Amino acid sequence: MSIYLNKDSKIIVQGMTGGMGSKHTTLMLEAGSNIVGGVNARKAGTTVELAGQELPVFGSVKEAMAETGADVSVVFVPPAFTKDACIEAIDAGIGLLVVITEGVPVQDTAEVFAYLEGKSTRMIGPNCPGIITPEESLAGITPHTIAGKGPIGLVSKSGTLTYQMMYELRDFGFSTAIGIGGDPIIGTTHIDALEAFENDPETKAIVMIGEIGGDAEERAAAYIKDHVTKPVVGYVAGFTAPEGKTMGHAGAIVSGSSGTAQAKKEALEAVGVKVGKTPSETAALMREVLQSL
């Protein structure tokens, strides 16, 4: 089992003909993803050969879905066009929308977030590595060679920490690893992923990676207390960050004591989540959990 993405997912790529789009479409194909086409209104009707496959380019998401049955779209378009690309995909009724683009204006993301209300689309991102169900499908930019299939569910704000945690626990493997992005406004949250992993019979334990700023981790702690029965291990990036300092992610702004790594650690530990001070310590805690199951 997996959450949100599996071997049957049919993926289109908005921006497939661009530099980043074509590069990562090739890597997704190598990961075993079922990529059925791309979208670029200016190149509609053409084909692109990637990883030995001839992929059609469609003029719109709606057309691509009608022709291929696609249910996932991965967005690799420049920040200025990301809002329009997302709204087009939502209007077409795509099931899963994975927005890789970084630097999307927060107002644009806010408008897309509001537009999602009442719609059938789940959005992951923006500014994220996407989602991978190892040995089945990749929608995004996570290297598929890091780790194979296994019992761990991973949800992370940080792309690089997603990769590190997958590498550290590669001997156990993952059901699904999802990078939700670190922007102030994102589609899928820690809580959404925790709920999905809790309901997935193949996921036995969950790693949750947060970072300083905002209150997403505190809210996730409250959710874990009431709704999650599986063991959760956590890591919060930014223990050494100075207070009041904006870090690499636009979401990582610390206000007072709320939003600090220590405050988040305490909130998580109060509900039984074991929190490591480093990614490696967090991986060691997960090993202990898995060995005791």
From TrEMBL:
<keyword id="KW-0816">Tricarboxylic acid cycle</keyword>
<feature type="domain" description="CoA-binding">
    <location>
        <begin position="4"/>
        <end position="104"/>
    </location>
</feature>
<dbReference type="InterPro" id="IPR003781">
    <property type="entry name" value="CoA-bd"/>
</dbReference>
<keyword id="KW-0436">Ligase</keyword>
<feature type="binding site">
    <location>
        <begin position="17"/>
        <end position="20"/>
    </location>
    <ligand>
        <name>CoA</name>
    </ligand>
</feature>
<dbReference type="InterPro" id="IPR005810">
    <property type="entry name" value="CoA_lig_alpha"/>
</dbReference>
<dbReference type="GO" id="GO:0000166">
    <property type="term" value="F:nucleotide binding"/>
</dbReference>
<dbReference type="GO" id="GO:0004775">
    <property type="term" value="F:succinate-CoA ligase (ADP-forming) activity"/>
</dbReference>
<comment type="similarity">
    <text>Belongs to the succinate/malate CoA ligase alpha subunit family.</text>
</comment>
<dbReference type="InterPro" id="IPR005811">
    <property type="entry name" value="SUCC_ACL_C"/>
</dbReference>
<dbReference type="Pfam" id="PF02629">
    <property type="entry name" value="CoA_binding"/>
</dbReference>
<comment type="function">
    <text>Succinyl-CoA synthetase functions in the citric acid cycle (TCA), coupling the hydrolysis of succinyl-CoA to the synthesis of either ATP or GTP and thus represents the only step of substrate-level phosphorylation in the TCA. The alpha subunit of the enzyme binds the substrates coenzyme A and phosphate, while succinate binding and nucleotide specificity is provided by the beta subunit.</text>
</comment>
<dbReference type="InterPro" id="IPR017440">
    <property type="entry name" value="Cit_synth/succinyl-CoA_lig_AS"/>
</dbReference>
<dbReference type="InterPro" id="IPR033847">
    <property type="entry name" value="Citrt_syn/SCS-alpha_CS"/>
</dbReference>
<keyword id="KW-0547">Nucleotide-binding</keyword>
<comment type="subunit">
    <text>Heterotetramer of two alpha and two beta subunits.</text>
</comment>
<protein>
    <recommendedName>
        <fullName>Succinate--CoA ligase [ADP-forming] subunit alpha</fullName>
        <ecNumber>6.2.1.5</ecNumber>
    </recommendedName>
</protein>
<dbReference type="Pfam" id="PF00549">
    <property type="entry name" value="Ligase_CoA"/>
</dbReference>
<dbReference type="InterPro" id="IPR016102">
    <property type="entry name" value="Succinyl-CoA_synth-like"/>
</dbReference>
<dbReference type="InterPro" id="IPR036291">
    <property type="entry name" value="NAD(P)-bd_dom_sf"/>
</dbReference>
<feature type="binding site">
    <location>
        <begin position="100"/>
        <end position="102"/>
    </location>
    <ligand>
        <name>CoA</name>
    </ligand>
</feature>
<dbReference type="GO" id="GO:0004776">
    <property type="term" value="F:succinate-CoA ligase (GDP-forming) activity"/>
</dbReference>
<feature type="binding site">
    <location>
        <position position="163"/>
    </location>
    <ligand>
        <name>substrate</name>
    </ligand>
</feature>
<comment type="pathway">
    <text>Carbohydrate metabolism; tricarboxylic acid cycle; succinate from succinyl-CoA (ligase route): step 1/1.</text>
</comment>
<feature type="binding site">
    <location>
        <position position="43"/>
    </location>
    <ligand>
        <name>CoA</name>
    </ligand>
</feature>
<dbReference type="GO" id="GO:0005829">
    <property type="term" value="C:cytosol"/>
</dbReference>
<dbReference type="GO" id="GO:0009361">
    <property type="term" value="C:succinate-CoA ligase complex (ADP-forming)"/>
</dbReference>
<feature type="active site" description="Tele-phosphohistidine intermediate">
    <location>
        <position position="249"/>
    </location>
</feature>
<dbReference type="GO" id="GO:0006099">
    <property type="term" value="P:tricarboxylic acid cycle"/>
</dbReference>
